[in-house]
């Protein structure tokens, strides 16, 4: 189903380069990610790089916040065509987090950020559908809010559902929509003991009632798109129970909603500190940005994948 055509390391200038987002804007590529000392250090800033061919990349912008460590940036297009970049900003002394968003017409000038959502409710990945933005928040504190937010402008987010995932420790997630408006959420789950099996949730408009099922495998850093034929393709870090950090890798997986299960379609060159992908379908190929530490320091990679 999938063939890896090529992969290249496109950025490795910081001690730790991770957590990517990828878009095609006009005739150029934009990739965003976090630069820091390490995976959980409190000094993260965001960098946006750009390329006209996917081969040669240059820095376009650096974004930061005085509140603290900028984490997990994501890129998308707002309905008016502007680029939207959102992230969480962690303040270690207070163990607090806020969500920020920047907007740009060209990927270079981002202006001032706006705070979105509520404090300590991390809006992790924004999904636009029929002119409206949706985001299922990551629970940052043990008793923090777990909410599904919605917005008509990408700035003012209001609570659509309080605790759409009924169990504790919901984590990173991604939402896609079908042509019939059905929403599907792939969610990384933790419990008090650590990583737990990933969950898939399905809801119909107005998205206030969600049905959840276990996928039987832990994942990390999920992203998901709907292919032209309707199938769901996810990029995740696959955990190997009982293995070491280096036994984990970034994989492209088909999500079978009937069983339900994740079926690995392609393992990307990776291990250890990896995943957090961006995915774009362009001219019949799947372009995937992701991070990995399989060549030493955690760096940013770009893969091109043929979908047969």
| Strand percent estimate | over 45%
Overall strand count: 26
Radius of gyration: 18 Å
- Which segments are poorly predicted (pLDDT under 50) over 5 or more consecutive residues? none
Strand/helix succession: EEEEEEEEEEEEEEEEEEEEEEEEEE
Mean pLDDT: 94
Order the strands across the largest sheet as they lie in space.
1-26-25-24
**What percentage of residues falls in helices of 4 or more residues?**
under 10%
- Largest sheet, if any? 4 strands, antiparallel
- The CATH topology name reads Neuraminidase
CATH architecture: 6 Propeller
Describe this entry's structure for a reader:
This protein is mostly beta strands. The chain has a single domain, classed as Neuraminidase (6 Propeller). The protein is built from no helices and 26 strands. The strands form seven sheets. Strands 1-26-25-24 form a four-stranded antiparallel sheet, with no helix packed on it. The radius of gyration is 18 Å and the shape is globular. The model has no long low-confidence stretch (mean pLDDT 94).
Secondary structure layout:
Blueprint: E1 2-11, E2 16-25, E3 28-36, E4 45-51, E5 58-63, E6 69-77, E7 83-91, E8 96-104, E9 114-116, E10 121-122, E11 127-129, E12 132-136, E13 138-139, E14 147-151, E15 158-162, E16 170-177, E17 183-191, E18 194-203, E19 211-214, E20 219-226, E21 232-238, E22 249-256, E23 261-267, E24 275-282, E25 285-292, E26 299-307
Antiparallel strand pairs: 1-26, 2-3, 3-4, 4-5, 6-7, 7-8, 8-9, 10-13, 11-12, 12-14, 14-15, 16-17, 17-18, 18-19, 20-21, 21-22, 22-23, 24-25, 25-26
């Amino acid at each position: 189903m999938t063939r890896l055509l090529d992969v290249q390391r496109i950025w490795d200038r910081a001690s730790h380069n991770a957590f990517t987002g990828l878009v095609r804007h006009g005739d150029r590529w934009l990739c965003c990610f976090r630069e820091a000392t390490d995976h959980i250090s409190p000094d993260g800033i965001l960098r946006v790089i750009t390329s006209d061919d996917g081969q040669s990349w240059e820095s376009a912008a650096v974004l930061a916040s005085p509140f603290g460590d900028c984490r997990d940036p994501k890129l998308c297009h707002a309905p008016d065509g502007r680029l939207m970049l959102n992230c969480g900003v962690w303040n270690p002394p207070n163990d607090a987090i806020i969500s920020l968003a920047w907007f740009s017409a060209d990927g270079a000038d981002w202006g001032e950020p706006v705070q979105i959502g509520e404090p300590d409710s991390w809006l992790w990945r924004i999904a636009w559908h029929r002119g409206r933005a949706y985001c299922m928040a990551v629970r940052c504190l043990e008793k923090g809010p777990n909410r599904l937010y919605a917005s008509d402008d990408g700035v003012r987010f209001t609570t659509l559902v309080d605790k759409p995932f009924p169990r504790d420790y919901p984590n990173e997630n991604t939402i896609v929509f079908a042509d019939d408006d059905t929403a599907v959420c792939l969610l990384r789950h933790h419990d008090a003991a650590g990583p737990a099996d990933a969950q898939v949730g399905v809801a119909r408009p107005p998205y206030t009632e969600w049905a959840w099922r276990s996928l039987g495998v832990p994942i990390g850093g999920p992203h998901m798109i709907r292919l032209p034929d309707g199938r769901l393709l996810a990029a995740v870090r696959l955990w190997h129970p009982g293995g070491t950090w280096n036994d984990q890798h970034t994989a492209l997986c088909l999500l079978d909603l009937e069983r339900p299960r994740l079926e690995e379609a392609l393992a990307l060159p990776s291990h250890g500190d990896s995943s957090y992908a961006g995915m774009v379908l362009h001219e019949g190929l799947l372009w995937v940005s992701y991070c990995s530490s399989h060549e030493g320091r955690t760096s940013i990679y770009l893969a091109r994948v043929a979908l047969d």
